[in-house]
Design a protein that fits this description.
Elements lengths: L2 H35 L7 H17 L4 H4 L2 H18 L5 H29 L5 H9 L1 H20 L3 H20 L10 H4 L17 H28 L7 H28 L2 H20 L5 H29 L5 H16 L2 H10 L4 H7 L1 H11 L2 H15 L1
Helix pairs in contact: 1-5, 1-7, 1-8, 1-10, 2-5, 2-14, 2-15, 4-5, 4-8, 5-6, 5-14, 6-11, 6-13, 7-11, 10-11, 10-13, 10-14, 10-15, 10-17, 10-18, 11-12, 11-13, 12-13, 12-16, 12-17
């Protein structure tokens, strides 16, 4: 690959780093806002869900425009809007204000992220598409880990507000760099133009008709179940771990270590996706996650043991967020990739919406930390079942390409 492509991919990875830090920031801030603003953690269920609603809206209505007009504008302006909305979150004093700014942050991210995934696929060599997409999206666990490790220092220097100033400022600077690094113009279509010569006014609707409805349903279902776990865990882990005997700072650090493990897990399984059988690889990933959460549910709290198990469970959820966009590159042609990821974000959020409110309900009911984390085994097991359908979903694209040859 050329130097310009490598530079572009590094900056695209920066968008995911910003997203990961931003996701963790609200969860880390929540247990501290009770003392600072008098807002109880259980009242933040819909605040933590607001970013998911925004991601769905932006992913379904704005992101697919990248398939028609090019990725650059969607990525740059989405990144800039994300930064400004994140900075504005630091001005909130009520749950309503937090909800509004998190919704705006989500819409901007939803417009941006599917195009980041699609462009990273287009810039990668074909034989390494899933791996390159995973390396780029590895920014999510890196950002989550940075938030966990740096939160005590940031809060000491700037209070809880700093948790939003840091990713927001980074996003604004990153938007400027991306404007100069990325090329404009519509996405590459290659052989897919012959496969689907008619450009639909709303390309995302193609995903709900034959032949793409089945692979999209498989992709979106796994994405949604994993997103439920991803947002349930990253939203509430810093809140529930102190109930198991950890300090707030140690809870943030444990969450950071667990999320950092997702980096290695995600890259490893993406290599399997590119070079091995995709269905069994996903079954192994989600099966290990389910086993780790079940083990936590059956053991007494212990920081060392739980940290190791959370590295598999929480790390696996973050790895799923890295691996699944790479799977999309094998399921759909290039001209539908932003639409597939964008609509996948929307449909997935129907499952992910349940994560933060479910966590809030369990906290309000004073559910023990072991039980809270044990619940995460259920969506992971469901992902194992759906992954059984992946081989059949992959055959759809092969049949379409064979018919066009």
């Amino acid at each position: 690959m050329t130097t310009s492509r490598i530079t572009a991919l590094m900056l695209l990875a920066g968008v995911f780093i910003m997203e990961g830090f931003d996701i963790a920031a609200m969860g880390i801030a929540v247990p501290r806002l009770e003392g600072a603003l008098g807002l109880a953690p259980a009242s933040f269920g819909w605040v933590l869900t607001a970013i998911l609603i925004g991601l769905g809206i932006g992913g379904a209505t704005i992101a697919p425009l990248g398939d028609r007009f090019g990725r650059r504008a969607l990525i740059v302006f989405g990144c800039l809007a994300t930064g400004l909305a994140t900075i504005a979150t630091a001005t909130a004093t009520t749950t309503t204000e937090f909800l509004l700014w998190r919704l705006m942050t989500g819409i901007a991210l939803g417009a941006c992220l599917p195009n980041v995934s699609a462009l990273s696929s287009e810039l990668a060599p074909h034989r390494l598409r899933a791996t390159i997409m995973a390396v780029v999206s590895a920014g999510i666990p890196i950002g989550l880990a940075f938030a966990g490790f740096l939160a005590p220092q940031i809060i000491a220097a700037a209070g809880w507000h700093g948790l939003f100033y840091v990713p927001g400022g980074f996003a604004v600077v990153l938007a400027g760099a991306l404007w100069f690094a990325l090329e404009g113009g519509p996405p590459e279509r290659a052989a897919t133009a012959a496969v689907e010569p008619v450009r639909a006014k709303w390309p995302q609707l193609v995903l709900f008709a034959k032949p793409w409805a089945f692979p999209f349903a498989v992709f979106a279902t796994i994405l949604g179940l994993n997103a439920l776990n991803l947002y349930l865990l990253n939203s509430w882990l810093p809140t529930i771990l102190p109930d198991a005997g950890l300090t707030l700072d140690n809870a943030a650090r444990v969450a950071g270590v667990a999320n950092l493990a997702g980096l290695a897990i995600g890259i490893g399984f993406s290599v399997l996706i590119d070079n091995w059988r995709k269905g069994p690889a996903l079954m192994l990933l989600f099966g290990c996650m389910a086993a780790s959460f079940a083990a936590i549910a059956l053991t007494a709290p212990d920081q060392t043991r739980w940290t190791l198990l959370l590295m598999v469970g929480v790390g696996g959820a973050n790895a799923g967020g890295m691996v699944l966009p790479g799977l999309a590159a094998h399921l759909f042609p290039a001209r539908l990739l932003s639409s597939a990821v964008g609509m996948g974000v929307l449909v997935a959020r129907l499952g992910a919406f349940a994560g933060p409110p479910l966590g809030a309900a369990m906290i309000a009911a004073e559910v023990p930390a072991q039980t809270f984390l044990g619940v995460a085994a259920i969506p992971a097991l469901a992902c194992v079942v759906v992954a059984l359908l992946v081989p059949a979903a992959l055959k759809v694209k092969a049949r379409v390409e064979a018919a066009a040859a």
